[in-house]
Specification:
The chain is an alpha+beta fold. 33% of the residues lie in helices and 40% in strands.
Length: 150
């Protein structure tokens, strides 16, 4: 797996016209995934460990995972087709009898929310990482201007 994927982090979140821009990347490159405004807010809350009055959907999912002994192993953003990103959520369930790994097709925004909540690694397929436009300079300018990027 090591050569097939590149580890990344969420480098910034910025409100955008059509929702929210998540800046995802590492020291080599940063790219943008556009998500719905509420998903950007949820991911931001998990990044800042903001307490919530009531559990949100991803909190509920975490509680269900915990009840069944499931953890998020990792997240992989796999592909980009027709301006839509695709991702895989890799879950692990372990009990006294066995260890089971399950890979699920999921929206990148949900994957990023769960990985952020559980502080689990985020990866991008190497082919996709090579394909996306580098937005490092844009993020740097935003940070220098003191905008709301995380």
């Amino acid at each position: 797996m090591k050569n097939d994927v590149v580890q990344v982090q969420i480098r910034g979140i910025l409100p955008a016209n059509s929702g929210c821009a998540l800046f995802v990347g590492n020291d080599d490159k940063v790219f943008v995934i556009n998500v719905e405004p509420n998903m950007g807010a949820v991911i931001g809350m998990f990044l800042r460990a903001t307490p919530k009055e009531r559990p949100l959907t991803h909190d509920l999912m975490q509680s269900i995972f915990k009840g069944f002994g499931i953890t998020v192993e990792r997240v992989v953003i796999t592909d980009l087709k027709n301006s839509t990103y695709f991702a895989r959520l890799i879950l692990q369930q372990q009990n006294e009898l066995a260890r089971k790994i399950v890979e699920i097709d999921a929206r990148p925004s949900d994957c990023l929310a769960l990985a952020t909540a559980q502080k689990r690694p985020i990866y991008v397929s190497h082919a996709l990482f090579e394909q996306v436009e580098d937005m490092s300079e844009v993020l740097q300018r935003i940070n220098e201007n003191g905008s709301e990027a995380e």
